Amino acid sequence: IFMEDSSNFRSYESTATMLGNFLTEVLTRCGRESRSALGSAHLRIASFDDVLLGLVSLAFMGVVMLLLTRILQTTSPTSPDAAALGVPNELLWKEIAPENAKGTVDEMSHAGLVAGRLPAATMQARSAHFLQLMSTRRSLRFFSPDPIPDQVLESCIQTAATSPSGAHKQPWVFAVVKDSTAKRKIRELVEAEEEINYARRMRKSWVHDVSHLLNKLHGNDGAPLKEYLTEAPALVVVFKVQHDVGEDGDRLDNYYVPESVGIAVGILIAALHNVGIATLTSTPMGAEAGIRKICGRKANEKVFLLLPCGFPATNATVPYRGRDQQRKPLAQIMPVI
Question: pTM of the entire structure?
């Protein structure tokens, strides 16, 4: 009965009530005869049987509490783990499927949304803490070879995939390259194209503006070296899916593809920094086709960005920001109309 009911509760309050009712029923059934006997006597000294029954009841309660705790951890949408990590129940929004939903696309149906609301003070504190966290994010070019723990990068990419997209087409692919040979080939392609980019394709103003960012990262030919593409334990190649292909080979349109993929990448960068993983946005101008071939992707997928991911090296550095290079103040970026 408890397992059936637990799938419907929405908060710890209802869980506590359910738990209390359950334990009350357990104690009622286990101790009915004992309480009846005690109730019929005005005053008596507890017998050995009474004490033994009490100890057995307490032990049984302990076992039940342990079992129910494990059930709550595995079935509750607000598990203790989530609460410990600062995820309030109010933010665990839940979608309620419409009645008689068939699980297929229905443009006329909408699902209900159960959404809580945080107190104003909590909202202000959480937004300030997140700002403090993200203010320490920096683009990194020097990585430790230490591997990223299992499921961390996967969870961050799944988080990125929660991003909104045009008509919910989700026009993105996040190819994770860990093979050292594949990373080396990608680096060789990018560095070869960068030599051409810096010599002919890019504006001189661009070369000047990024020169301080790439200090000591230039080869003999003046083009920047891309050591981070092979040093980082994981290289995420983000593809934008220009259009999908149906089972019969027909072209299926996607919409607002660059905007959708850009938003997803932003969420991915925030998710990575949230767990202490550094990254860098790298645009491999001229090397897109070769990278797509190395990754074994189809022609309808175009390289959007390269994101080397990993822990900062022990001797890592980032470009120093003087007063004229700080992030723009709020008053400059947020006009209120």
Answer: 0.71
